[in-house]
Every structure is written in structure tokens, then in C-alpha cells.
Amino acid sequence: MDNRASSGASEGKAEEGRRPLSEAGRRPTTTQPAGVPGGARRVGVTGEAVKLLRRLTEAHGPLMFHQSGGCCDGSAPMCYPDGEFLVGDADVHLGDLDIGLARQVPVWMSAAQFGYWSHTHLTIDVVTGRGAGFSLEAPYGVRFLIRSRLFTDEESEALDG
Questions:
Q1: Residue 59: enclosing H or E segment and its boundaries?
Q2: Out of 23, 90, 96, 110, which could bridge 19 as a Cys pair, Cβ 3.0 to 4.6 Å?
């Protein structure tokens, strides 16, 4: 299944197996919990990334991230206005980033990529330099990137239940 952003999102159309986030007022069912009792989380965010996400939210409204398994910049986390990138059964909801605003930022990953990264905690950070693609931070001369670490035994146990 193609994981690229679809221009059909703005027209209210969706590909087979995909649906706009606003459809029925709910998100697609996910295959993994975003977090579990005890505080184990799959995804986090740095302070610098929080500052940029707040700025982008002011400019574009609610946001979302999607991490695909592509090459080059396709392997970088892409930030979109929420609903611009259609997620579906081929995506996993990793969690929601608290950026100190009323609405958190959901983070999604393609299920194929999640198969490789399911044992790691991911932190979204921002660095100087331009990436390519359609991610909202590109005009600011910065790019989001993923920093990762292996889960501790305790985190793995909590997440795997």
C-alpha cells in the first residue's frame, strides 16, 4: 500500500483501506498501544522540537507525524497538518506528543517500519539543515529527525504486556 500523502485528503476522498482522520470523528484502530500503565511510551519529543511544533501549530493548526520506511528523507519523520496524510490499517499509532497545547500531536509509523523499530524508544528532535519532501518545517531551514534507544527490559515487558 502506498504511504505517500494523498491530494484526495483535502477533497474528502480516500483510497481503498484509508480514511480521513475526521471520518466518523475517530482515528483508525491501531495495532499497538500508545502507552501503557507505568509510563512506558514508544515516542517522545525534545524541548527544541516542542518549540518548533508550537510555532508550526500556530501557523498550520493541529499537526501529526508520520514515519515511513522510505529511503533518504523518506525515512525522516514528516510533519503534516492533521488529516493531510491519510493513515489506515497499514499504519501504527505510536503515541501522542504533549507539546503543552490543548491538543497533542499524534505520531504514526508504517506497520512495515514498526516491525524493525518495535524494540526502540523514538525521540523526535530537530536539527539545522534542510530536508526534502513535504514536511512543514522545511521552509524554516531545519528538519525533524528520529533519535532512538533500545527499550529497557522493564519498558519492553510493560509494552509487550
A1: helix 47-60
A2: 23
**Quick one: cell of 40?**
512506558
What phi and psi, each to the nearest 5 degrees, are found at residue 17?
Answer: 85, 0
Cα 74 to Cα 91: distance, rounded to the nearest angstrom = 15
| Alpha carbons 131 and 121: distance in angstroms, whole number | 23
Q: List the domains of the chain with CATH numbers.
A: 35-160 (2.60.300.12)
pLDDT tens over the chain, length 161 residues: 333 333 333 333 333 443 333 333 333 333 333 444 456 899 999 999 999 999 999 999 999 999 977 665 557 899 999 999 999 999 999 999 999 999 999 999 999 999 999 999 999 999 999 876 789 999 999 999 999 999 999 999 998 87
Identify the three-state secondary structure at position 71: coil
- Nearest CA-CA partner of 103 in 139, 140, 54: 54
